[in-house]
Amino acid sequence: MATLEKMEAYGSETPQWFERVPPAYWVMTIVLLVLPAFVSDFVMFQIMGWTNITGLIALSLMFLGGYGGMVSLGQMALAGFAGYMVAIFGNSAVVEVSQGWPWWIAVPLALVLTIIVATAIGWLAVRTAGIYTIMITLAISAAFFYFTRQNYQLFNGFQGFNSVLPPKLFGVDWRGPMTFYYLTLFWAALGFGGVLYISRAPFGLALQGVRDNPRRMAALGYSVTSHRVAAHAFAGLIAGIGGILLTWQSSQISPGTVGIGAAIDILVVAVIGGLRHPIGAFIGAFIFVILKTFAVDVLVALGLGGERFQLLIGLGFLIIVFFSPDGVLGLWERLRSHSKRDPLTGEERGGRSQ
What we know:
Blueprint: H1 2-12, H2 23-34, H3 41-68, H4 75-89, H5 103-125, H6 131-150, E1 161-162, H7 177-200, H8 202-212, H9 214-219, H10 224-250, E2 252-253, H11 260-273, H12 279-301, H13 309-323, H14 327-339
Antiparallel strand pairs: 1-2
Helix pairs in contact: 1-8, 3-7, 3-10, 3-11, 3-12, 4-5, 4-6, 4-10, 5-10, 7-8, 7-10, 8-10, 11-12, 12-13
């Protein structure tokens, strides 16, 4: 009921645009801004760039699951849809299909269409709950994967599109290691700040109220369905931005990008990081990218064969979830609460004795 109390407080107080930023956020911001001065191009482009992109897509799932109580396996499909739209309306090596429109038309159009598709998916998914929502979104993801694989007139079939590059805005090559890192960091920070702000705005508080007690929220006059569908639309926008950046990073988009494995990967990223706070999506993304990048090298060094790298990723996932169902954030909260307790009495240090 804490969410409903916060909503009542909004009725008597004017929402603050800016709240006091924790010191840890300032430290993290400074570290990320100066990071290119200390790391290689590979780390900037492949590790951190991929982390920011994967974190954005996982952030869309975190928003739905953490604040809306809706688990969707369709976020990677939405990201891939946005990437396909940029390739189709913009420029690529497949000149027979790509329209060659300028980026300032292709990119916004791709995002608008992604929001429309996300709204349609949400309109279908919110009429179910639990495992049925997961199955509907999984079925949509699978259908989109097979459609892109078999359709050659629009999606160029199995080959997809290559040479899909970001525009050279202001004469800058935005696919360079440093520039692309800052490009992804900008959108990751914008997505993170947007989700954090909305979660504390009236809409976000109402969405959390719908998550906790939909019947009471409906009795108070809130449209449960409208809030859930709007949450899917906003999550689709975040996933679409991540999908466009992913397409620009790899300079291609194909059915493999939107496969079932990729949809499961986003769920794993969100669960590893934790669904209780937006930062969890990026923590999970960083862990996933590190495992994905270096798992093969570790297994080869151990003499186990590089083809079993998914095993190491799966073990890492199981270990984190086993010790903390809430992911890394949950584990961090448990460690903090444990450190605040007196080892002899078990009470929190500094607390009043009763």
